[in-house]
Amino acid sequence: MYEPNVVGDWHEYDEHAGLRVRVHRLEAAEPPRGRDDAAEGLTYFRVRVTVENRGERHLGIHLEDGQIDVRIGGDGEAAFIDWRNSQFIEGFDVYPLRRATAVLYAAGPEASLSQVDVQIQLRVEEEWADRRLWTGGLGLQEGAVGAHAATLRDGLALQVSNFLRDQAEEGTA
Asked: Its domain of life (predicted)?
């Protein structure tokens, strides 16, 4: 099992030399074209996903709806995704030393936004890359090192460990 990234971390793809992705700028923000009626009573937030090419050749990338999943709170409930206000990367050639950024607007109950998980599955040159997870929350500082990052990683690891232990106990009864 791989260790999740913390919001602000870069993740490099081994199968595509020089390509890396970062989920960053997780912050409270109102959408530019107004709130969706379905998000009434929810708190909006914005997250940016940047794809950078540090390789030697251009790569065609796609990061569209359905390739980004946002979960909130301790139970990992789906956040409301405002597709109308979000901006995706749809079939863009990222040349060496260039970047492309997607901006996603989502919403959820304010009490659940202290834990936000963003899963990305990038498509590069018509091939699907492995899914990767970033974890963070509103109110936490991006790129946190030390206590915040360790708490996020340890909290997720503890949840997985408890789940696996519970599953093993059920199977041995």
From this structure: Bacteria
State the number of CA atoms in the 13 A half-sphere of 158 facing the CB.
7
Q: Which residues pair with 89 in a beta bridge?
A: 63
Mean pLDDT of the chain: 87
Q: How far apart, in whole angstroms, are the C-alpha atoms of residue 133 and residue 68?
A: 10
- The 10s digit of each residue's pLDDT in 124-153 is 999 999 999 999 999 865 544 444 455 555
Q: In terms of C-beta density within 10 A (0-12 exposed, 13-18 middle, 19 or more buried), how is residue 141 classed?
A: exposed
CA-based R_g, the chain, Å: 17
- Burial 28-48, CB ≥16 within 10 A → b, else e: eeebeeeebeebeebbbbbbb
SS3 27: strand
Question: What's the pTM?
Answer: 0.79
